[in-house]
Amino acid sequence: MERITQAERMLIGGELVEGGGGEWSTSVNPATEEPIGRVPVATRDDVERAVVASEKAWPEWAARTPMDRAQVMNRFADAIAARADEILRVEVTDTGNTIRPMRMIDVPTAVESLRYYAGLGPDLRGETIPATRDHIHMTMHEPYGVVARIAPFNHPVMFAVARTAAALAAGNAVIVKPPETSPLSAMILAEIAKEVLPAGLFNIVTGDGRGAGDAIVRHPRIKRIAFIGSPVTGRAIQRAAAEVTVKHISLELGGKNPMIVFPDCDPEKIADAAVAGMNFSWQGQSCGSLSRLLLHEDIHDRVLKAVVERVSALKLGDPLSETTDVGPVNSEVHMKRILEHCAAADADGARKMLGGGRPVGKQFEKGYWVAPTVYADITPAHRLWQNEVFGPVLAVSKWKSFDQAVEMANSTEYGLTGAIWTNDIRDALRMARKVRSGHLWINGASMHFLGVPFGGMKTSGVGREEGREELYSYTETKTINIML
């Protein structure tokens, strides 16, 4: 077995440890199906140890000034940046994501988020309320104490770090469960955190959802949990947590996101944006991917032709190659699920323009490969319109009237992201007010901006991350009434 990490250990209480049950989980390269590393399978006792360690660590951490916490968080960011290349190569090999966009996005976003929330920490403030004439009424924000983050497989380190930075800045200790199908970069993160952070402040427990994940969700002393993943798993987390105690759970879940294009747009520019918005570099495995392309009938044919040309030119291959545009999907389970969606689209009579199966060629005989796919003439009656594929599959449709476009855009259970393309600011804002999605771009696609809230409506989740709201979400409000 090729050795990817130096430690192959979890981080609990400031120590690199094996699982209490002595079991290991093997990670494979999705491009080749070859074993590339292993991680411990955490038990419920391991999770309990992580909780106890967090409970010991957070009071001292919360008692520090925000500037003291910021200095430590910035050292953590420096240490992660120093090993960026190592983390990058491990994540590319473990996830299947291609190296060029990952180099620009994943570790840099983790580092920038740590610095952003480190700087925002001193702004975590309460307020005074003039409720009465004779007394003083004020609020303050206190950390939950022990919080948990369950990270998804598509961007393991980015979500493990960028989406815990707010919790650390607010004075909490953190328990992270990395994804079971791409956990190896978290082992490097464990080494870094051990050297830089106070013992017990940042804990990493590996394993699957039924074991470590369920133990975290059901632990009565972890009151704040954040999860990114599928709606099915999000609902399961809510149910399991509710069986134990009342918890604050934020969820960023799936999306079947529309890109709505008005007839005054340049078809060539729209084609470029549609391919970028579909996130083919992540194999379409992003909750925010613009997987429904809604084209006005006047430009539909020209845009569709240009999109097919661009998608057919994408280069599949080794994710570590600088010339690769699309790599394999993350796991065999996801590959089979994506191919089932394509088969269902064929059965529904959708017009397949490109892809729809495994790519042809000897190098694709092993690994979890799905060819970049485009279907046309998709309507709300098609399963491909309603179901999140979470793969490199773009559904294209046409519309005629403004109201029809609104109805089509909102005709799924999802509401995470969306894009509106037009040169008329009135049409853009009218449409933005009508579309039931939590994060919209006008004349843009699939970009995140640090400090700007991100999250979904409807089945796509609850809560907002990436901005000031996320910092406050890791605190509880305490009200103090001073009777004069």
Overview of the molecule:
Belongs to the aldehyde dehydrogenase family. The active site is at 252. One of its GO terms (molecular function) is oxidoreductase activity, acting on the aldehyde or oxo group of donors, NAD or NADP as acceptor. Keywords: Metal-binding, NADP, Oxidation, Oxidoreductase, Potassium. InterPro entries: Ald_DH/histidinol_DH, Ald_DH_C, Ald_DH_CS_GLU, Ald_DH_N, Aldehyde_DH_dom. By secondary structure, the chain is α/β, with parallel strands linked by helices. The chain folds into two domains: 10-254 and 460-483, Aldehyde Dehydrogenase, Chain A, domain 1 (3-Layer(aba) Sandwich); 258-442, Aldehyde Dehydrogenase, Chain A, domain 2. It has 16 helices and 22 strands. It has helices at residues 44-63, 66-82, 84-95, 99-120, 156-162, 165-169, 184-196, 209-218, 231-242, 267-277, 300-312, 332-347, 383-386, 402-409, 425-434, 468-473, and strands spanning 10-12, 15-17, 24-28, 35-40, 128-129, 136-143, 146-150, 173-177, 202-204, 224-228, 248-252, 258-261, 292-296, 351-354, 373-376, 393-399, 414-415, 417-421, 439-442, 457-458, 461-462, 475-482. The protein has a seven-stranded mixed sheet with strand order 14-15-16-13-12-18-19, sandwiched between helices. A hairpin with a 6-residue loop joins strand 3 and strand 4. Helix 3 packs across helix 4. The chain starts with 9 loop residues before the first strand and ends with a strand.
